[in-house]
Each structure stands twice: as C-alpha cells, then as structure tokens.
C-alpha cells in the first residue's frame, strides 16, 4: 500500500477543481493553481458560497489556517 501525504495529494490536484470549506462556513470551488507548506492556496475561476449567495471570482488567495476541509474534484452542490 502506497502512503500519500497531504501535500502530495494536493500536488496531484494542481490544475484541477477543488472544493474547500472554511472555518467560518464559507465554501469555495475553483481551479487550484498553487499552494505552500502552510496550505495557503491560490484558486482561479472561483465560485464562493456565503450564506446561500453565490459569487463568482476570477482569483482568490485563501489563508491555510482558516481551511477546514479540501476535496479534490469536489463541487458545491
């Protein structure tokens, strides 16, 4: 069985769509362009879901300390 570490899994998700849940219950879906060792992330072509309202953003930088959940290939329902 091959061990996959979190950074390795995220590295495989570069240029793919990801779904991210933040600690403040906001959700983001976008194309992962990059990240660092602290899980700060750059997403492009983003949909933000905040209190039931959807907002489209061209690009966003998310603070890794505020991320609760990352789902590679996930979508906002």
Per-chain topology:
Blueprint lengths: L5 H7 L4 E6 L4 E9 L5 E10 L2 E10 L4 E6 L5
Antiparallel strand pairs: 1-2, 1-5, 2-3, 3-4
Task: Give descriptors for this structure.
tRNA processing, Sm, 9% helix, RNA-binding, mainly beta, five-stranded antiparallel β-sheet, 77 residues, RNA binding, nucleus
Written overview of the protein:
- There is one protein chain.
- This protein has 77 residues and is mainly β.
- The protein has one helix and five strands.
- Strands 4-3-2-1-5 form a five-stranded antiparallel sheet, with no helix packed on it.
- The longest helix is centred in the first third of the chain and has 7 residues, at 6-12.
- The protein is globular, with a radius of gyration of 12 Å.
- 14% of the residues are buried.
- The model has no long low-confidence stretch (mean pLDDT 94).
What is the percent of helical residues? under 10%
Category from helices, strands and their pairing: mainly beta
User: Would you count the extended β strands for me?
Assistant: 5
Instruction: List SSEs in N-to-C order.
Output: HEEEEE
Round the Cα radius of gyration to an integer and report it. Answer: 12 Å
Largest sheet: 5 strands, antiparallel
